[in-house]
Amino acid sequence: MTNFAAIFLGIFIEAVPFLLLGTLASGLVEVYLDQEKLVRWLPRQPLLAAVIGVGLGLVFPVCECGTVPLVRRLLSKGVPPALGMAFLLAAPVINPVVILSTLTAFGPGVVFWGRLGLTAVIALLVGGVLGADPDVHMVLRADAGLTLHCVQADGQLLPGQRFRQVLLVAADEFFEMGRYLVIGAALAALMQLFLPQSWFLAVQSGPVLSSLFLAALAVLLSICSTVDSFVALGFAGWMPVGAVLAFLVYGPMVDIKSVLMFGRVFRKRVVVYLVVLPLVLTLLLTGLINVFWKGG
Q1: CA separation for the pair 207, 294 (Å, rounded)
Q2: Residue 255: which residues within 8 A CB-CB, separation 6 or more?
Q3: Taking the domains of the chain in order of start, what are their residue ranges?
Q4: 136 within 8 A of 110, measured Cβ to Cβ
Q5: What is the pTM of this model?
Q6: How many CA atoms lie within 13 A of 35 on its CB side?
Q7: SS3 of residue 143 by DSSP
Q8: What is the pLDDT of residues 6-64, one digit of tens each?
Q9: 3-state DSSP assignment of residue 218
């Protein structure tokens, strides 16, 4: 129980600030973002919208816990689904905090550029596929809870009153998504306690198997993307570089916490695509890197 509590609190404390940041961003979007202007400014072509979504993490620096409530709010405001899905997958890596932590851990080498490049490519492709239908109702669940958190943003309100509305929206979403964070952190802690260490030695040589193993490990560990580079650094000396990239690319897109949040917000079909498509692309691309990359 002591080990479980230590691991659980470690995961939970890492994730909470970013969930809070994401829900605050969601409140700001709800209160201050004009839906008509947003719809008019953003492109409707799926791939172009997905390109914008990939880079949006530089504006909203949130990890995987904070992206779900923010994407739900953006979609409710009329953002194209392609943009929202691409942002959902890319933002946990392509944001200033994670870029800096990865650069600090690995330097400007193949892992650093590979993480950014593979994340952008996968998010772009999956965003384009899931956003091919512009109808947001094909992505969000009918009971996604949006109506419970909407406020009337009266233009005559004083700045203090408008910010109070932001806090009300953020508080609602924080406590709604927080329960899934608690459950996910507890499951991840249990997985870490019972994961056999001998598994590591059995998968080193396989170009795809090693990537699959570290991708699955990233899901089970559910480490926040802001610090996972330093965990991955421990694998760098004895696991193939593609496998290390699988850990750094797939883990921030899909882990136990985020899957539970996906299920609260998105339709079941979309959740399956969000889990399976990035995994297939990650294994394909990192497997090729394992085969052809001979550098140090």
Answers
A1: 12
A2: 64, 184, 188, 218, 219, 220, 221, 222, 223
A3: 2-292
A4: no
A5: 0.76
A6: 11
A7: coil
A8: 877 876 777 677 667 767 776 776 676 665 566 667 777 888 888 988 988 887 767 77
A9: helix
